[in-house]
Task: inverse folding
């Protein structure tokens, strides 16, 4: 996908077009971000219909409040991801709290653990998607295709040193998914909505 | 709003910086290690001067050891602070660089053993190893990218209900918007190799079925160039650029595009195709609100269509070719939404009388029943086209003149056909003789209409 070379100009123009009320811009926004939004929501909620609902909520929010996005604060992509994360975690917390209130068993600590785990998992997904393609490709080969680093180096046409470097760096980036900020705040995709 | 600083954390620039930092720290480790050897006569690091900041551990010899022909000093002699009893085969910086591969179980077993021994001695590596091992647990197969295409419509409609658009998308552009989005989702999921999967484009010419071989990428190039007819009519850039086509027909333009590209099309064609589809939808949204655009016509060379019908035609072609692609890469692909399918069938039903007349002129269809022409707007001999299934309906096709009005009283034949089957017929993918049709009445009229429907198809 072209997402990694999205110029900030696209973000700014998109915001202007949304603010102007261009239905065609909304379609383009969806085409660019729907799989990101749905994927993150699904990772947090583990449910297709709930993810559909979050997807609707996210696009409704952006369409109704395009001015809430400030291009100076970072890319539209991370803003949309943050918004998705926040809404999905809110939804998870609400459903889990309701289940708890109905005596589903489990404790508040279990609930918090579950929310935290889902939150970290979603953030990890985002990090993998957003990381430079060479690092992602190396992780993909070593983890999903079970290639060792020497084979990975051959597959990628790089030195063994470079393959080791990419695997280590990729995991270092991924490990930041655990670095949740203050409790309650969505661990950073960037400026929240 | 949270802080802007964290917003940048996932910027690639930041990744690169971290990358650099990491490289530096890696290098520092290496340099530190090398410092132990800093005093080695003739050592490569001597030029930097930094080694002179520390007191040399052994007196500097006058000549390099190689020059002197003496044996290299033993490690102990260099004053290594804690010489391990059995020096590890791998140095710290190598072991450190292996941590990622180790965490992923992607190094040799010897290396894994060496790393694990090292972790017992080196706190910083042990910390990192733990962290990276935990990170491996966060790797999941990506969530499926197959979004239900109906979700797009639901989400967008939901948005537009909440905040009505100031610049709406014309209803007649909606099928094109939806079909291009569906095809793009399919393209997103296919691998590099599949872009070169062979595809046979099939259509129906005056005499019978014909076909042309290309690839998945070639099909997208075809859609790009023919959609370009609409782009040109709207005053947008022609994707064909300066390439000279033998005519403004879909086929001539496609052949010209294929001919003039030096390499066979690759997946790189997706971006310009998608960009143009978005530009078209955007541009017709603006032009449809201005007067005059209603009369804007798109020329296909041999004929022209009003803009709204041309957009419907392009939506239809997009679906048909998406099915060609889906078949080539073995991917499930459904029909358009019933609402959109209905519009496509309606377009075909509306142009059938003209096609029928043209075929008759060319001697490909039976002559009109009446010697005299049916006056314009008057009811004429008609065929009732009954399209079953979602998106279906009934159309009365005047048989003797495009100017005549379809009339139930003058119905001479009746054809019943499933909607998707009818579209496959109109796409030239089903021979008219095999179109599974329930039929009754004038057999000649039925044959003429089914052949006319098939001849709607083109490359």
Result:
């Amino acid at each position: 996908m072209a997402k990694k070379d999205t110029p900030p100009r696209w973000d700014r123009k998109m915001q202007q077009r949304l603010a102007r009320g261009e239905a065609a811009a909304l379609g383009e926004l969806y085409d660019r971000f729907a799989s990101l939004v749905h994927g993150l929501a699904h990772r947090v909620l583990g449910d297709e219909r709930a993810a559909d609902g979050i997807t609707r909520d996210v696009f409704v929010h952006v369409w109704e409040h395009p001015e809430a996005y400030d291009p100076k604060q970072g890319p539209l992509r991370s803003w949309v991801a943050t918004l998705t994360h926040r809404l999905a975690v809110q939804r998870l917390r609400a459903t889990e709290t309701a289940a708890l209130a109905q005596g589903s068993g489990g404790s508040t600590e279990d609930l918090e653990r579950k929310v935290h785990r889902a939150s970290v998992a979603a953030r990890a997904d985002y990090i993998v998607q957003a990381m430079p393609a060479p690092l992602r490709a190396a992780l993909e080969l070593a983890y999903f295709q079970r290639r060792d680093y020497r084979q990975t180096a051959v597959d990628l046409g790089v030195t063994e040193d470079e393959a080791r470097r990419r695997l280590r760096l990729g995991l270092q980036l991924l490990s930041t998914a655990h670095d949740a900020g203050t409790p309650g705040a969505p661990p950073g995709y960037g400026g929240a909505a | 709003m949270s802080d802007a600083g964290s917003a940048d954390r996932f910027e690639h620039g930041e990744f690169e910086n971290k990358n650099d930092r990491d490289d530096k720290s890696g290098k520092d480790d290496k340099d530190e290690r090398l410092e132990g050897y800093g005093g080695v006569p003739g050592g490569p690091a001597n030029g930097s001067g930094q080694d002179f900041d520390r007191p040399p551990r052994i007196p500097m010899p006058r000549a390099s050891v190689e020059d002197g022909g003496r044996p290299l000093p033993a490690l102990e002699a260099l004053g290594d602070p804690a010489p391990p009893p059995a020096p590890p085969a791998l140095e710290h910086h190598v072991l450190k660089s292996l941590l990622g591969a180790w965490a992923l179980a992607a190094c040799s077993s010897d290396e894994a053993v060496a790393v694990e021994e090292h972790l017992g001695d080196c706190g910083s590596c042990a910390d990192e190893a733990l962290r990276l091992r935990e990170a491996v647990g966060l790797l999941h197969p990506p969530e499926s990218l197959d979004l239900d295409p109906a979700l797009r419509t639901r989400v967008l409609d939901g948005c537009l209900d909440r905040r009505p658009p100031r610049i709406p998308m014309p209803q007649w552009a909606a099928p094109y918007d939806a079909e291009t989005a569906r095809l793009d989702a399919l393209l997103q999921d296919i691998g590099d190799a599949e872009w070169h999967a062979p595809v046979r484009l099939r259509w129906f010419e005056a005499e019978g079925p014909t076909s042309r071989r290309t690839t998945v990428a070639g099909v997208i190039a075809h859609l790009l160039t023919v959609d370009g007819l609409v782009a040109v009519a709207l005053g947008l850039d022609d994707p064909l650029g300066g390439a000279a086509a033998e005519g403004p027909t879909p086929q001539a333009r496609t052949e010209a595009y294929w001919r003039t590209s030096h390499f066979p099309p690759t997946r790189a064609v997706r971006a310009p195709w998608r960009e143009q589809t978005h530009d078209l939808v955007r541009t017709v949204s603006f032009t449809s609100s201005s007067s005059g655009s209603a009369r804007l016509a798109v020329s296909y060379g041999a004929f022209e269509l009003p803009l709204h019908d041309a957009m419907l035609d392009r939506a239809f072609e997009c679906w048909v070719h998406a099915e060609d692609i889906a078949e080539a890469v073995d991917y499930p692909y459904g029909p358009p939404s019933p609402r959109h399918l209905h519009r496509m069938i309606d377009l075909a039903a509306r142009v059938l009388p003209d096609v029928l007349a043209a075929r008759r002129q060319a001697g490909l269809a039976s002559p009109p029943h009446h010697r005299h022409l049916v006056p314009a707007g008057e009811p004429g001999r008609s065929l009732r086209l009954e399209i079953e299934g979602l998106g279906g309906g009934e159309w009365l096709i005047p048989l003797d003149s495009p100017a005549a009005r379809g009339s139930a009283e003058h119905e001479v034949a009746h054809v019943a056909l499933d909607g998707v089957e009818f579209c496959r017929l109109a796409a030239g993918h089903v021979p008219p003789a095999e179109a599974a049709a329930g039929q009754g009445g004038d057999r000649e009229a039925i044959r003429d209409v089914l052949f006319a429907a098939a001849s709607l198809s083109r490359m």
Summary: The two ends of chain B are 53 Å apart (CA to CA). Strands of chain B lie at 198-204, 209-215, 297-299, 304-306, 379-388, 393-398, 405-418, 438-441. Chain B has three domains: 87-138, 154-334, 341-454. Residues 1-68 of chain B have pLDDT under 50 and may be disordered.
